[in-house]
Amino acid sequence: MSFFTDASGKAILSNGYKKNIAQVFKAELGKYTADAKRVAAFLPCIRPKRKNIQYLQAEETAKLHDILEHQSPSELSLRNRAIGTLLYYTGLRGCDISHLTFDDIDWEKEMIHIVQQKTAAPLELPLTPVIGNAIYEYVTNERPASDDPHIFLAENLPHGPIGAGTIWWASAKLYEAARIRQSKGDSRGTHLFRHNAATTLVSNGIPRPVASAVLGHEDPNSLDHYTSADIKHLRTCALSIGEYPVAKEVFEP
User: Fold this and answer.
1) Residue 212: helix, strand or coil by DSSP?
2) 3-state class (DSSP) for residue 111
3) What is the pLDDT at residue 240?
4) What are the beta bridge partners of residue 246?
5) Which of 10, 24, 85, 242 is close enough to 134 for a disulfide, judged by CB 3.0 to 4.6 Å?
């Protein structure tokens, strides 16, 4: 017990850590199996910690859309604008954007073909005009001269390919240009765009298998994590309190 708690009995390890240890004790350990199960029965109950999932509010997505459409070069470089456009309209993971090459884009058929870095599964997405134009403007007007096959390159010498960390930095610059998410504790990562893409698809009635395929998920149930922000459909699940008496001052500021 002292392994999991301090002298006062307060848990010092996470519930997830305990679960990993429990899996070992529950496994078939030969002659030790009976003893292991007996020890497992003494593992303490640790309350799981849950974080509130941050997601983009409607007014934030409107500001992001506006800055992508009407950005000033002094606020947002063409590279970061193209990266932001891909994040906003496709929900692609940062690692997939950083690995994007010219061979991944079929300009004639207007399609993007990639193999996802996380799952190694292929993914096809439409190359819409707004995405194609943003990439074209960066490549023709700002991208350093280089034979490197990657589309997005570092802004400083030696202008090599970028990593997922640079995609995060580009998204932070986009939030800054849009004047949102600048307070302490505000998430400014790329996953907010992916979450927003999933929520937008589901809230607009796109079937789950289709929405899941657009995001590159093989299992439609993977959307469960994202639909927690689908306020439109969550409201239909809420129970009315119209039959219950509520003091007027409850709704007053």
Assistant:
1) helix
2) strand
3) 78
4) none
5) 85
Closest CA to 195 of 222, 164, 162: 222
Cα dihedral angle (147, 148, 150, 156), rounded to 10 degrees? Answer: -100
Q: Cβ distance 60 to 181 under 8 Å?
A: yes
Q: Which residue has the higher pLDDT, 217 or 133?
A: 133
Report which DSSP code applies to 191: H
Report the predicted TM-score, pTM, of the whole model to 2 decimal places: 0.73
The torsion angles phi and psi of 38, rounded to 5 degrees, stand at -70, -40
Q: Domain spans of the chain?
A: 1-50, 58-232
- In the chain, how long is the greatest CA-to-CA distance? 71
Please state whether the peptide bond connecting residue 73 to the residue before it is cis, i.e. omega within 30 degrees of 0.
no
Which run of H or E residues covers position 95?
A: helix 94-98
Amino acid at 59: E
Name the phi and psi angles at 11, rounded to 5.
-65, 135
Q: Which two tokens stand for residue 237?
A: 């699940």
Q: Which two tokens stand for residue 119?
A: 């799952």
- In this structure, are residues 104 and 113 in contact, taking their beta carbons and an 8 Å threshold? yes
84 forms beta bridges with none
Asked if 98 and 163 touch (Cβ cutoff 8 Å), the reply is yes
> What's the CATH class of domain 58-232?
mainly alpha
Q: Is 126 helix (H, G, I), strand (E, B) or coil?
A: strand
From the list 157, 150, 177, the residue with the least C-alpha distance to 85 is: 177
